[in-house]
């Protein structure tokens, strides 16, 4: 009878040890949950930054295409200085070419780039022009201070027959 009592006591004691979670287990699970949530927030921020960078690259391509289209329409890579100057203003600010050159309130919808500059180098002998657009997004300025290049660049070449 004594043996049974001792055995029952051991079983009861084992059940008491295993019932419930200890404080350490709760803290470890909270740390794991916090790390998982923090990594999800960081991933979301990176995706948002990549989306913004892709939008800027797309806008740079459209701005370069607009100047290249003017060259094709005029059948010359040597555009008047006023046209190039207006295009450079459009790259640097949120002004569309159509609203900058006419009194029309409806522009082409193209806006500029953050800290954007546009340059055009013309080679009249070969009838080619190189259009270069550089910009620096405000979010990339931090990387530039750390020694990484924070500027982006889009280069296209126009060759007329």
Automatic annotation (TrEMBL):
Domain of life: Bacteria
Keyword Membrane on entry: yes
Spans through the membrane: 21-43
Naturally occurring in which organism (per UniProt): Cupriavidus metallidurans
Keywords for this protein: Membrane, Transmembrane, Transmembrane helix
The protein's name in its UniProt record: Prepilin-type N-terminal cleavage/methylation domain-containing protein
Entry-linked Pfam families: N_methyl
């Amino acid at each position: 009878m004594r043996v049974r009592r001792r055995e029952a006591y051991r079983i009861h004691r084992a059940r008491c040890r295993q019932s419930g979670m200890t404080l350490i287990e709760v803290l470890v699970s909270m740390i794991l949950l916090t790390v998982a949530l923090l990594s999800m927030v960081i991933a979301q921020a990176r995706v948002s930054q990549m989306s913004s960078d892709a939008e800027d690259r797309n806008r740079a391509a459209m701005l370069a295409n607009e100047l290249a289209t003017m060259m094709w329409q005029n059948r010359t890579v040597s555009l008047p200085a006023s046209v190039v100057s207006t295009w450079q203003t459009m790259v640097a600010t949120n002004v569309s070419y159509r609203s900058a050159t006419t009194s029309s309130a409806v522009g082409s919808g193209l806006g500029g780039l953050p800290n954007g500059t546009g340059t055009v180098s013309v080679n009249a002998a070969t009838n080619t022009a190189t259009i270069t657009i550089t910009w620096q997004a405000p979010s990339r300025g931090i990387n530039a201070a750390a020694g990484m290049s924070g500027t982006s660049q889009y280069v296209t070449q126009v060759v007329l027959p």
